[in-house]
Automatic annotation (TrEMBL):
NAD(+) binds at T212, N243. SUPFAM superfamilies: Aminoacid dehydrogenase-like, N-terminal domain (SSF53223), NAD(P)-binding Rossmann-fold domains (SSF51735). Residues 205-445 form the Glutamate/phenylalanine/leucine/valine/L-tryptophan dehydrogenase C-terminal domain. Substrate binds at K92, Q113, K116, G167, S379. Gene3D superfamilies: Glutamate Dehydrogenase, chain A, domain 3, Leucine Dehydrogenase, chain A, domain 1, NAD(P)-binding Rossmann-like Domain. The gene is gdhA. Belongs to the Glu/Leu/Phe/Val dehydrogenases family. GO terms for cellular component: cytosol. GO terms for biological process: glutamate biosynthetic process. InterPro entries: Aminoacid_DH-like_N_sf (IPR046346), Glu/Leu/Phe/Val/Trp_DH (IPR006095), Glu/Leu/Phe/Val/Trp_DH_C (IPR006096), Glu/Leu/Phe/Val/Trp_DH_dimer (IPR006097), Glu/Leu/Phe/Val_DH_AS (IPR033524), Glu_DH (IPR014362), Glu_Leu_Phe_Val_DH (IPR050724), NAD(P)-bd_dom_sf (IPR036291). Keywords: NAD, Nucleotide-binding, Oxidoreductase. This is Glutamate dehydrogenase.
Length: 447
């Protein structure tokens, strides 16, 4: 359904005020489409310019990051941190280090994070950050110096009650450790709750590395159960081979599915006998090499350079690399191969055209802001543990994660049905997230 004239005018204004940020426009358009029928029924929800405020970041910080490589050469990168909404709690969301990062990337991610974080029910606002720094091929020392330089500015803007960054593409436990080390040095405080995704030895939570991938699989499992299916015996294709993809693969195997393909920025790995999680971990996380190296270690595997995995027949798919990585033609190919369900491990990996194909083919579709919320939810659990100076067991943390994911699934399903769109998880996630944030914004008054 097209946007009505009031919402269309608002969207036009957002595009005008935020030029050359197509991913941000895409994320806003999706939310506006979902919530428009709610606003038509309850126009008072839009009073006091609520939508304009919701779509305008509370703050955006852009800064220069200067660091030196191992040869002593100086480099200059750009750092970003966007605090989009603190209506529900401190800004919360990851940091992305990738050469493609712009302000628009960070704004789209921070906007998505508002609704995702609302769905977790944990009292966390939406934010995101990053840099156009390219970590590939950089030594440990270079990564450390970059993280230290980045935090030298970022520390002014974060804190356990203000803004709590974590990881995203290019930022894992190693980078969070270096960032936290510099934060601690500059502030003279061991404020563990200022960053999440920390290693266990510096106040991290059990199951945080696993949480996004595991959570996406729990969400997928719940979607399948609604249709009378289980994961047992299903063939799966995952894109990416980083944090989210690897742990999605582990949980899929644990629950009886077989992952036959994954990918990275150089191509697609296919193994009809099932990708080995331990070898994938060794290649990508330990050796930090590209995926083609996997085939040197496993004879049944094949690597296709520059290919994406979406033409490989599968029952379930988890795009878990990056935004807009799965387009209309990919969706048509997956639908032709009788895909049953797809959960977005990444943020906004499917284009609007691809989503339309899935919806028309009645394929169960779990949008990222619901399906990949397990990572930030477990970050919320890490903040709880830090505040209470306590440590939970892996089992307790994973059980809590699983409960949160099932609750998000239930919320999406019930909200979609209540709004005349049964089974539409996009409507469910956007409307439920919006209503939670809008209610808090109204309680807080005009701020
Ligand atoms: N980490 C988390 O807790 C959460 C992450 N997400 C989302 O999940 C996605 C993956 O994040 P994460 O696993 O943490 O990141 P990682 O850096 O660990 O892994 C990213 C993976 O995606 C591939 N990739 C990255 N950019 C591109 C690109 N432009 N084209 C093709 N492949 C690409 C990388 O390939 P290569 O190795 O060759 O670079 C790598 O395999 C992102 O969308 C992120 O926002 C969502 C919720 C939480
Ligand atoms: O754990 C976090 O705070 C961030 C997770 C994240 O960046 C995301 O959900 O996309």
């Amino acid at each position: 359904m097209p946007l009505d004239s009031t919402t269309a005018a608002l969207y036009k204004d957002i595009v005008h005020r935020n030029p050359a940020e197509p991913e941000f426009h895409q994320a806003v358009a999706e939310v506006l489409h979902s919530i428009q029928p709610v606003l038509q029924q309850r126009p008072e929800l839009g009073d006091n310019a609520l939508l304009q405020r919701l779509c305008e970041p509370e703050r955006q910080v852009i800064f220069r990051v200067t660091w030196t490589d191992d040869k002593g050469n100086a480099h200059v990168n750009r750092g970003f941190r966007v605090g989009f909404s603190s209506a529900l709690g401190p800004y919360k969301g990851g940091l992305r280090f990738h050469r493609s990062v712009t302000l628009g990337t960070v704004k789209f991610l921070a906007f998505e994070q508002i609704f995702k974080n609302a769905l977790t029910g944990l009292g966390i606002g939406g934010g995101k950050g990053g840099s156009d720094f390219d970590p590939s091929g950089r030594s440990d020392g270079e990564i450390m110096r970059f993280c230290q330089a980045y935090m030298t500015e970022l520390h002014r803007h974060i804190g356990p009650h203000t803004d709590v960054p974590a990881g995203d593409i290019g930022v894992g436990g190693r980078e969070i450790g270096y960032l936290f080390g510099q934060y601690k040095r500059i502030t003279n405080r061991f404020d563990a709750g200022a960053l999440t995704g920390k290693d266990l030895n510096i106040g991290g939570s059990q199951a945080r590395p696993e949480a996004t991938g595991y959570g996406a699989v729990y969400f997928l499992e719940a979607m399948l159960a609604e249709r009378g299916h289980t994961l047992e015996g299903k063939t799966a294709v995952v894109s990416g081979s980083g944090n989210v993809a690897q742990y999605a693969l582990v949980k899929l195997h644990q629950l009886g599915a077989k992952v036959v393909a994954c990918s990275d920025s150089t191509g697609t790995l296919y193994d009809p006998t099932g990708i080995r999680a331990d070898i994938l971990h060794e290649v990508k996380q330990v050796q930090r090499r590209k995926l083609d190296h996997y085939v040197e270690l496993v004879s049944s595997a094949r690597f296709a350079p520059d290919r994406r995995p979406w033409d490989i027949p599968c029952d379930i798919a988890l795009p878990s690399a990056t935004q807009n990585e799965l387009g209309e033609a990919d969706a048509v190919s997956l639908a032709k191969n009788n895909l049953i369900a797809l959960a977005e491990g990444a943020n906004m990996p499917c284009t609007p055209e691809a989503i339309k194909v899935f919806q028309e083919a009645r394929i169960a579709f779990g949008p990222g802001k619901a399906a990949n919320a397990g990572g930030v939810a477990t970050s919320g659990l890490e903040m709880q543990q830090n505040a209470a100076r306590t440590k939970w067991s892996f089992e307790h943390t994973e059980q809590t994660l699983a409960r949160i994911m099932r609750s998000i699934h239930h919320t999406c399903l019930v909200t979609a049905a209540d709004h005349g769109k049964p089974g539409d998880y996009i409507t469910g996630a956007n409307v439920a997230g919006f209503l939670t944030v809008a209610s808090a914004m109204n309680t807080l008054g005009l701020v």
